[in-house]
Structures are given as C-alpha cells and as structure tokens.
Amino acid sequence: MLLLDDVYKVYGKKKEKKVEALKGITLSVEKGEIFGVVGFSGAGKSTLIRCVNLLERPTSGRVLINGVDLLTLSPKKLCEQRKKIGMIFQQYNLLHSKTIAQNVAMPLVLEGKPKAYIKEKVTELLSFVGLEDRMNHYPEQLSGGQKQRVGIARALATDPDILLCDEATSALDPTTTQSVLDLLRKVRDEFQVTILMITHEMNVIKDICDKVAVIEGGKIVEQGSVMEVFTEPKTEIARSFVRTVLNDETPKGIKDWMKASNGKTYRVIFKGNATNIPLLSDTAKKFSVDLNVFHGMVTELQGQPFGNLLINIQGDSNEIEQAVEFMKSQEAIVKEVTPNEF
Ligand SMILES: Nc1ncnc2c1ncn2[C@@H]1O[C@H](COP(=O)(O)OP(=O)(O)OP(=O)(O)O)[C@@H](O)[C@H]1O
C-alpha cells in the first residue's frame, strides 16, 4: 500500500555542496503493518520519512500510495492525498496558544469541516487517547507523553490511511515511551492504519514493529521481519542495533570460563515452537550429553518468548552432533561458536 521505489534525494545544487541523503531507497509497507526504519544520526531517516508526504521532494524515484505515484499528482490532487497521511513529531509541534481541543481540531478547521462535526470528532479522538478531561487545557499544562497523545489525536483527525512517526518517543522516558507505543498499536488495531516510524532506538522496533529496515549512509543495508533481523542480523550495523536491546555481549569472566571448559560451545536461539518445549532438558534426556548454560537471556519479541543462549555441550562428538540436529529440528537456530568468537 506504501511503496518507495528507488528513491534518491540530493540536497544542494552546486557540486561541492551536494549531499546525497538517500541513495536508492526501496521499501514496501502493507496495509495495517507497523514498519520501522532504524539508523544512526545522519543516516537519512528524517529525509526518508519527509519524502513520503513530499515535505521533501525526492530527486528521483517513485512514492506510491495505493498504487498512485504522489510525484505525478497536480498540487490539488497531492493536497487531497496528503490528508490521508498523518504525521507525529519528536517535539510534538503543538500550537501553544491553542487549547488541546483546538490543536486536534486544526486539520479539520483547515479543511472547512462543519463545527458540529469537528466537535464530535475532537471529543471522540481525545477520548480515544485518554485525554477527554484535558480538552480545555493548554499544551504547556501537559506532560511530554500527554503532548504526544494530543499529537496522535491531531494526526488521526483526517482519518489517515498512513501515520508517519518521526522519532515519536525519543523525548520520552521509558515508561511513557511504552504507553505511547501501546497507543500506536491500538491505533493500528482499531483503525487499520499503516504506520511508518523512524527511530534510532532498537527498543522501539522490538516493542511495536512488524518489519524493520536498517538505514546507513542513505541506503537500506538490511530489512526483514523483526523476528528475522533480531534472530539473524546479517550486517554488523544491524547486529550492533540488536545488541543494544538483547545485550548479548559476554562478560570477560564468562569468556574465560568458556575458554577453560571442555566440549563445544553453541549459540542457541529459540523462538516460536521451540519456546513451547523444554528444549535443553529434552536434549539432555535424549542424548548422552551434558548441557551447561554459559550466558544468555530470554525476553519477549512480538509477544513471543525469544531466547538467545550460549551453551556448552560435552560428550561423544557423535552424540553432540545428534543433539545439535535435534535442537535444530525443534526450530531452534544452533551455531557453533569458537573461542575467538566468544
Ligand atoms: N535541508 C538539508 N540540506 C542539506 N543537507 C541536509 C538537509 N537535511 C539533511 N541533510 C543531510 O542529509 C543527511 C541525512 O540527514 P537526515 O536528517 O535525513 O538524517 P537522520 O538519520 O534523520 O539524522 P538525525 O537522526 O540526526 O536527524 C545528513 O548528511 C544531513 O546533513
């Protein structure tokens, strides 16, 4: 439903001042999907999200929404399409001289909607975001999380198909971040809104996104389902983002312990079906091997348990091989780790 096709954005005209901010971005987001783009500062995230609603006009490429290329539209048609794209910002961008209700009403006032319609819609949206009792307050009387709720209500006023989130939780503390992410999930679930979010926080991706793209130097270097990228990141940058959440760095003392141990060491990643069975104890019962967990964690990814363990297996090499094959047959990802990879 949203497709960016080979999008380039070059800032500046003179050769020496040219900045190639996007270098051929292609990504597609299905209806009702929450798609995250993660990258470090300067990677091109803001440019990318601003190219979707043409706040920045791509230098080349296509931006298609439901098959319509926005770059080919007349100004009038583009204006109509833009109503179907809501946006929320890191700094909320609320009008401080207006009340909460007036802020949410603003897009509808600009559209010339009837007063009665606006009143009903604003009340409905403020109730949806849990701020119906704050209608007549001003932005400065609200906390950061409440301001972002107002931003979300305002973005939903025109019943958008797509919601763009520009670092929507980066200014918030972890608890407030969680409540805003929960609200965004509710927006998707209740209104079937497609959400494209940019962030530098992998935690946000882990908590809410279905798919993720990693952007570096204006290019998407890796993309896939959140489960795929967290389970088997293919690039060093994706691995480093995953590490910020899963923290699989092995402490030195444990590395020394691993090096001093007999047997072989494996990284075991289990998810989905593999989390429903006692994988390690089943393996130890079935084969003549001793299993020892060196390091790791079990967390939750997209509502499912997700484990990432470093284990030591001791025993006859044939038994070890069969034990590994058994774990793989239970949908675990099992890879031998040599001492220099500890
Ligand atoms: N209006 C502009 N004119 C010239 N260069 C720009 C402009 N906006 C962004 N850039 C450059 O384009 C590149 C990508 O910037 P962009 O803001 O898209 O990255 P980002 O990933 O959003 O970074 P941050 O998280 O720090 O905002 C950077 O090199 C930046 O300096």
Automatic annotation (TrEMBL):
InterPro entries associated with the record: AAA+_ATPase, ABC_transporter-like_ATP-bd, ABC_transporter-like_CS, ACT-like_dom_sf, MetN_ABC, MetN_ABC_transporter-like, NIL_domain, P-loop_NTPase
Keyword annotations: Amino-acid transport, ATP-binding, Cell membrane, Membrane, Nucleotide-binding, Translocase, Transport
One Pfam family in the UniProt entry: NIL
Record-level Gene Ontology MF annotations: ATP binding
SUPFAM superfamilies, alphabetized: ACT-like, P-loop containing nucleoside triphosphate hydrolases
CDD domains attached to this UniProt entry: ABC_MetN_methionine_transporter
All residue ranges annotated as the ABC transporter domain in the record: 2-242
Record-linked PANTHER family: AMINO ACID IMPORT ATP-BINDING PROTEIN, METHIONINE IMPORT ATP-BINDING PROTEIN METN
Name of the protein this chain belongs to: Methionine ABC transporter ATP-binding protein
